[in-house]
Amino acid sequence: MKYLTVIYFDTFARFFHAIEDEVKDTDPNAEFLHLSIFPSGWAYLKTRRRKTRLLPLELLKPNTTHIDVSVADLRTISNYHAVVGAHSGRANDAALRRRSQRYVDTIARIIDNFRPDVVLLSGDTRIACEAMRYHLKASHFPGPVFYFEQGPNGTTMLDRQGVNANASFRFLAAELTGQGYEPEAARKLAKYKRNPIYRATDYAVIALLRVFGKLPPEWDTMRLGSYPEYGYAELTTAPILEAPVPGEVLVALQVPDDANNIHHNPLKLNDHGLLQWVLTATESLGWRVRVREHPLYKRKYSAELYDLLGATDRAILSAQSLADDLSAANAVVTINSTTGLDAYLQSKPVVVLGNAYYDHLPGIRRAADQQQLTDALDVAAAKGGFADSDLDPRKVFAELKARYLLPGHYQDADLTTPALIARELVAAGEAAARDDR
After folding, report:
1. What was the pLDDT predicted at 87?
2. Which of 171, 191, 379, 425 is the residue whose CA sits 20 to 30 A from 407?
3. Residues 169 and 75 in one domain
């Protein structure tokens, strides 16, 4: 049996290396080919004598394979990078279409030569995985395809349809009741301490190629500024905190270049647009609005967001812990941040404006426009929540974990999940082989 994978960094490579070992414990003749998007992933596997190729380098090789792909599909394949690389200007669109075509052609060549029986992808967005998904579907690939992603609270997603909002269980979650399940504390296991040399290699190569104007778009990052420190500090110490208010809503921002924020944000809300919506929705309630940045991106959001915070007397920038923010909140609004799930587990009313794997859990409210957001927060203020029953969110989540998620995380020091994934890969591959007979 042959297995084809797509990975990113050395931390992913370690995890997929362990999956390969587990599969080979069952089938010593199994063959793996790992396609790495970044040098760190390639180097980790190469130094351990695993079969791997650096995908951006593969694109430079002569290739007689050509697949006809429409302009619309090419744009879909590279959509994430079009947003992240918007600083490159209009010329970036044509360059990304050419890059997408090259990816599809290269992946088609690799699949034709390697002939995999099972495919395992890290995520389901960004150019390499989008190109792989496109070709597998267009060529009617007969074998099983799996998608891997880190899950919430120390878990792992392994899904045949996709991850995040594309996960097959997203709509099925509405039927969960939690009956027969007990709440579980979040797993806090020791984390893997990576060798910094691997990631440093990525940074060095990226810096060098950027100097010469040869940086592949899949290695580029969104250009983020830093809001001035003097203005930023004032936003967390506003007099608003001294005034009594009837309630408070927490706005949970997320990483600006997060794939969920780009692919699963149908309203195309940016950070200051989100804040303006919440300010409008809570105007009649008189609620205070507290905005929480992702902890790794403080001062990195748009100047418009920080300017809006400074211009209103009802909004404040959070300077406290997530636990304190959730404790003070009467409701939480987010596009699709995991903070929404954290709030749900504390029985807080949650309104999701984007698409998320958890947005159909009983008791979570989705809003598709400004009026629906206003109505949802009015209900939260009047009733204290959206649940139509006495379901315990913690038990509901325990059922979600048991049914659709795997225990363990790819960055755990002691990896246990690869054995579970290997079992599913082998079983699916053998089932597909039997069907072909």
Report:
1. 64
2. 171
3. yes
Looking at the fold, whether 428 and 297 belong to one and the same domain comes out as: no
Instruction: Give tens-digit pLDDT for 21-64.
Output: 999 999 999 999 999 999 999 999 999 999 999 999 999 999 99
Residue 234: how many CB atoms within 10 A of its CB? 13
Same domain, 41 and 150: yes
Do 253 and 385 fall into the same domain?
A: yes
Cα separation, 307 vs 68, in Å, equals 47
**Taking CA 129 as the corner, what is the angle to CA 302 and CA 143, rounded to the nearest 5 degrees?**
155
**Residue 113: predicted pLDDT:** 97
- The residue range of the domain holding 277 is 229-391
Q: Which pLDDT score is estimated for 230?
A: 86
> Does some domain include residue 211?
no
For the chain, how many structural domains are there in total?
2
DSSP annotation of 348? -
Q: Are residues 142 and 252 in the same domain?
A: no
Contacts of 171 (CB under 8 A, 6+ apart): 360
Instruction: Please report which helix (H) or strand (E) contains residue 5, including its range.
Output: strand 2-7
208 in any annotated domain: no
Same domain, residue pair 416 and 281? no
Whether 243 is in a domain gets the answer: yes
Confidence (pLDDT) at 436: 76
The candidate with the shortest Cα–Cα distance to 407, out of 141, 192, 184, 113, is: 184
Q: Is the same domain home to 327 and 422?
A: no
**Which tens digit of pLDDT belongs to each residue from 125-166?**
899 999 999 999 999 999 999 999 999 999 999 999 999 999
pLDDT for the residue 304: 96
Q: CA-to-CA distance for 125 and 76, rounded, in angstroms?
A: 10
Which of 335, 339, 145, 316 shows the shortest CA–CA distance to 233?
Answer: 316
Helix or strand or coil: residue 285? coil
CATH number of domain containing 11 = 3.40.50.2000
Tokens representing residue 405 in the block: 């998620």
Q: For 54-101, what is each residue's pLDDT tens digit?
A: 999 999 999 999 999 999 999 999 999 988 886 666 558 889 999 999
Would you say residue 61 lies in a domain?
yes
Type of residue at 247: G
What are the distances in angstroms from CA 98 to CA 49, 94, 127, 210?
33, 6, 12, 19
**Whether 50 and 173 share a structural domain:** yes
Residue 285's alpha-carbon distances to 1, 238, 259, 326, in angstroms, are 61, 20, 33, 19
| Low pLDDT (below 50) residues in the chain | none
